[in-house]
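Secreted protein structure dump, as promised
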Amino acid sequence: MGITSRAGLATVLTCIATAAAVAPAAAAPTAPVDVPLGGLNTVLPFDAPTVHTGMPLPVPGAPDGPRYVKGNLLPHNMVPALPIETALPDTHIGTPLPDPLSPRNLGTPQLVAPDTALHLLTPGADLGAPLSQPRAGLYGLPAVTLPEAGLTAPAVQSDPAATAAL
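structure tokens r here:
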């Protein structure tokens, strides 16, 4: 095997190793986040709460493109709404509950919200042409009409839940 073949093989193996290392990070739906609240210990008469959550990483989907409708000069759904899929991450909030009559803690109340799927749809726009279809009374020319414009409403769908425990 010549030096050129070895260099080519080494380059291919390096690319494969890089792609394999990056793939799990790209597939993760959230990036973990621990909120630093240790600075509150100086102002609170009890231990600071702990917050463990994540940052959702949205994944855009394929938009429903413009559709041509018979009788209209411009397509329907001119600026299509973009669907976005993501997940609300697991969130754990907890703090030690001090006993007012003794130096010990009564327990650690926690608020836990499991991860949930989140479906979003961005607003879209629709625009009508300022001209009508050709008319026989105007010798085949279109008539001038008022332009029409409309927006489609955005949508958010999810099913969040939370559990409080002591």
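The mean pLDDT is 81.
lmk if u need the other ones
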